[in-house]
What does this fold into?
Amino acid sequence: MSRKFVAICAILSFLGFSLVACQHRIPKDAFILSPESLKDRQLQTRIFETNDEKKLLTASAALLQDLGYTIEESEVSCGVIVSSRDRNVTEVGGVVCFICLGAPYEQKQKIFASLVTRPIDDKRIAVRITFQHMVWNNQRMLVKNEQINDPEIYQKFFSKLSTSVFLIAHEI
Amino acid sequence: MRKHVVIIFNLILALTLYACAAKQKDILRAEESQVKLRSIQSRVFDITDPNRLLRAIIATLQDLGFVIDDADETLGTVSGTKRSGHALRMTVSIRPKGDNQMIVRSNAQYNLQTVEDPEPYQQFFAALSKSLFLEAQQIER
It folds into this structure.
């Protein structure tokens, strides 16, 4: 009888220790500037020949709204605009396949975009945008939680921002 | 046998009650001693312009792969999140120290845990120093 009791206690202790061991520690390189950080900075930054930071931020906010983002926070004195967008990522063809196979499929995503302006000198201002996203599947499980590194997305964004700055400059 | 079952049942009940109480206590609980944690998380910089410091903090966080969540010049705070398979949240605040210096304090949270290991903070301040071209000094107690 007491053996059973000891066995149960041992199992409970093992479970307890396993749960403690499951708590992951912060990755060693989380705060180290990686070799890719310079590449990322170049990808995410463009320099505009202007000294009007406020106008650049206005144009950026207008563009983010055009792209369906909701402005969540802004601090003009620090040159920061924080925005996000919720979207359905379901593709009909893919979903039919996954349903037939009984496998979970990606359903919803939230994209976070933070735009920061930083004056370089009296005539130039750098604009840096960072995109990250979270993707959930149809079982509401988080399947992606990462930075978006597709160069095309950043190129398209800055191309649109140039147009938006032009439109604002000409008050269209 | 019955006695053992009662003991195990009581043990589970006690653990459950403790867990409920712990959740409430968690609101104001700091894992490490407050003074030790403050010293790990704070550095002093020879800078007087809060705007320049905040902008450097924002740029450093972006270089480290964070997306900025919030910035407030009046309060002197910046918050950001790094999503790369995990969620690393960071809040950095600044306040003046005397006439020529400013204290930078950072708090990091990895998933659901406060980061109390000194190393990540040292790495963050090293990156911030690079961005500011200034040396981060240990805060005097």
In short: Residues 1-30 of chain B form one domain. The radius of gyration of chain B is 20 Å.
